[in-house]
Amino acid sequence: MHVSLAVRFSTFTLLSIVPFAAMTGQTHGEQTGSPCPAHPNTLRAMHGCYRPLLVFAPALDNPQLVEQFNQLKAHAVDMKSRGLLYVPIVPEGHNQPIPGSRIPTASLSEDELAATRHRFKVEPDEFLVILIGKDGREKLNSRTPVSMDQLKPLIDSMPMRKGEMKQDLQGEE
């Protein structure tokens, strides 16, 4: 039986890649050469890796911002398991992680803060919560704080999350 050179080369390439991917721990869901950053500072850096929860508020002491933070702080484990990042966006630009907090938080650069506010057309005096999926699309938009009881089923119904849960179950076997 005659096998063409192209078929042999393709087979060799495929067989070479599989062990390499296994050695490096890469799976089909990861992009080769672009691992997820531990501390992303742009929405683009979060794409495919995290689900940013953008929380726009007029000030750090805004009652709705404080309530939103309090809704999340008891659910740090749920947030981490779902790749959910709390991203406060206030006009002063003070969106740094809260000291002593376990909540996964992302800090955007000053330019990214302005671009994000412009992209979603949010005025400096408005409160708004927007959940962005790993696919980069808006999944939730709320003028009031959102509880983890609302976020968990929404995130768990997303196709990428269903795939993550399936992989987690297969890993336990």
Quick summary:
The protein is built from seven helices and four strands. The protein has 173 residues and is an alpha+beta fold. It has a single domain (43-172), classed as 3-Layer(aba) Sandwich (Glutaredoxin).
What does this entry look like structurally?
- It is a single chain.
- The protein has 173 residues and is of the alpha+beta class.
- The chain has one domain (43-172): 3-Layer(aba) Sandwich (Glutaredoxin), CATH 3.40.30.10.
- The protein has helices spanning 5-24, 43-46, 63-73, 76-81, 110-119, 148-156, 159-172, and strands at 51-56, 84-89, 128-132, 138-142.
- It has a 4-stranded mixed beta sheet with strand order 2-1-3-4.
- Strand 3 and strand 4 form a beta hairpin.
- Mean pLDDT is 78; it is low at 5-33.
Strand content: 5-15%
Order of helices and strands: HHEHHEHEEHH
User: Poorly predicted ranges (pLDDT <50, ≥5 residues)?
Assistant: 5-33
CATH class (first level) name: Alpha Beta
How many domain modules? 1
- The oligomeric state is single chain
Mean pLDDT: 78
**End-to-end C-alpha gap:** 41 Å
Q: Major β-sheet, in short?
A: 4 strands, mixed
Which architecture would the CATH scheme give at its second level? Answer: 3-Layer(aba) Sandwich
Question: Helix tally?
Answer: 7
Q: State the fourth-level CATH superfamily.
A: Glutaredoxin
